[in-house]
Design a protein that fits this description.
single chain; alpha/beta; TIM Barrel; 12 helices; globular; binds zinc ion
């Protein structure tokens, strides 16, 4: 029997704020006070997390003090540089920019700042995931061969990140590798026939709380180890405090009855093949 807390892992979706943002908000009394590179490095050592993917928010005010996308990408590049290869980072989108500008910044994100994918957050950007804007952006991501992570934790069938809309976009781009973050939450069933990977960030404790551990196991196995990706969304969680996220995740995962090979695929191999590392 192995323990998820001890096996080697990559955290495929987490949040760290740049130092300049942390310095500008010394009294922040929310989860983002934990979104700090030094603290995350301690957790990585404690839980055998060999690397991690920093996700931006589609809100440049959270990731820079200049509040523009170029500054966000530069900050993500700096975080990667300082981490000695431990951090990867996905490119951001500022919905206030025209789609032409966003495509140009995405090319820069790869060529100038060596970022590793594109993050789309329909809730924060207010752009419905199957909008024309996102389709145009995806054409650029496709040319750049960038993996695309989509936030999907919808409340209703009309939410900007509703799974039906996510699937509409994914169907248009069969050449692009997609990760649906948070598994589409409680609309997960509509993702079963979709070719995307799903990351288990944020949602896992919510599944257990609302559906029970047996049903959670059934859900995860209905996707299978080929499509699941380990990710925490640290320090964000609707149910848990930041301090409890990892221990709670590993407790749940230890109940999921994955074989050691399947666990390796979920914890390391799937995201490694997406990032080509
Ligand atoms: Zn997140």
């Amino acid at each position: 029997m192995f323990d998820w807390a001890e096996i080697e892992k990559i955290d495929a979706h987490m949040h760290i704020l740049p130092d300049e943002v942390q310095r500008a908000n010394p009294d922040a009394d929310n989860e983002f006070q934990y979104a700090e590179a030094g603290l995350f490095s301690v957790l990585m050592r404690q839980f055998n997390i060999k690397s991690a993917v920093i996700m931006p928010f589609n809100d440049p005010r959270l990731m820079s003090m200049e509040f523009n996308i170029e500054a966000v990408h530069s900050n993500l590049f700096d975080l990667k540089q300082k981490s000695a290869g431990k951090f990867f980072a996905f490119a951001d989108v500022d919905p206030d920019n025209s789609v032409e500008e966003s495509c140009r910044f995405l090319i820069d994100a790869v060529e100038k700042y060596h970022l590793d994918g594109l993050k789309l957050h329909p809730q924060n950007s207010g752009l419905h995931i199957d909008s024309l804007y996102n389709s145009e952006l995806l054409k650029t991501a496709e040319v750049l061969k960038l993996p695309v992570a989509i936030h999907s934790y919808p409340n209703t069938a009309d939410s900007p990140d509703a799974v039906r809309k996510v699937v509409n976009l994914i169907d248009k781009f069969p050449q692009v590798t997609f990760i649906v973050s948070h598994m589409g939450a409680f609309q997960w069933g509509e993702l079963l026939d979709c070719p995307a990977y799903v990351d288990i960030s944020a949602i896992l404790p919510d599944y257990v709380r609302k559906c029970g551990i047996e049903e959670c196991r059934r859900m995860l196995h209905s996707f299978g180890a080929d499509r699941l990706i380990f990710a925490s969304d640290f320090p964000c969680n609707r149910v848990l405090s930041p301090k409890d996220i990892f221990t709670n995740y590993f407790e749940i995962l230890n109940f999921m009855d994955f074989s050691e090979n399947e666990a390796h695929q979920i914890a390391v191999a799937n995201i490694s093949s997406i990032l080509k590392i």
